[in-house]
Amino acid sequence: MTEQHRVAIVTGSASGIGAATAIELARRGWRVVVNYANSAAGAQQVVDQCVQAGGQAIAVQADVSVDADCRRLVQAAITQWGRLDALVNNAGTTKFVAHANLDGLSAEDFQVIYATNVIGPFQMTRAAASALKDSGRGAVVNVSSVAALLGTGSSIAYAASKGALNTMTRSLARVLGPTVRVNAVSPGFVDTPWMVAGHGGPEKYKQRAEHYSSLVPLKNTCLPADVADTIVWLIEGAPKTTGDNIYIDAGMHMAQAK
Ligand code: NAI
Is 247 one of the catalytic residues? Predict the structure, then answer.
């Protein structure tokens, strides 16, 4: 099979960073499995955009916190195209709780967030490992967050889940080499539906975006396409990079927290 026919799964790609990544891969000739949890209509729109971009795509419903769904999702790629070359563990969830409000987070909140943000990527990688090894140059990219480094973000449970994902990225990179590379990207403030909803609507979101921009060296926020470009580079390029974590945050990881 030729280079243009490589196959990727992007979890949680009915919107935001995942959608931008699926479309960019399709533009480069990849076959893409667009995974969604609930939004069948959103996933179909992304599939249509992938086809318009010159690739092929299918939409597959699966909840990454459920192991049987992860195995079914990987099988869908194999059944459709006979191979799997890249996995982007992008699906993520959170609960917006002020960090000082310790009573605002329950054990169940942690369990729900970890189920998608930590156990999900583990289950997906485990389900995909054999096919990625068969590819001969498989790649996994985990979508983490600058919140893991800074201990900031939508809640303490969310920041901790991304810290666990960073550690797992390194563990998996050790065991899946030499044929599979495992890396992470850590976005900062990215303009996606998640951020607008989480900040209580467009007006508050705009204020928060301006505040963020004022703190960081590049005086800006990020777009989903900025993150997608780095994810695609880690998949297609970077042949000697594994166990790494790249910040796409306009420099927030060096900024003074306020
Ligand atoms: P988004 O809300 O557009 O995308 C997240 C997607 O994950 C949604 O489509 C959602 O349905 C899906 N999802 C959630 N739980 C799932 C599950 N159990 N199984 C399958 N799909 C599931 O938001 P965005 O911003 O594009 O988020 C993508 C990733 O980027 C997440 O992992 C998030 O933590 C990370 N991130 C986002 C930042 C931002 O500023 N927007 C900053 C840092 C990291």
Answer: no
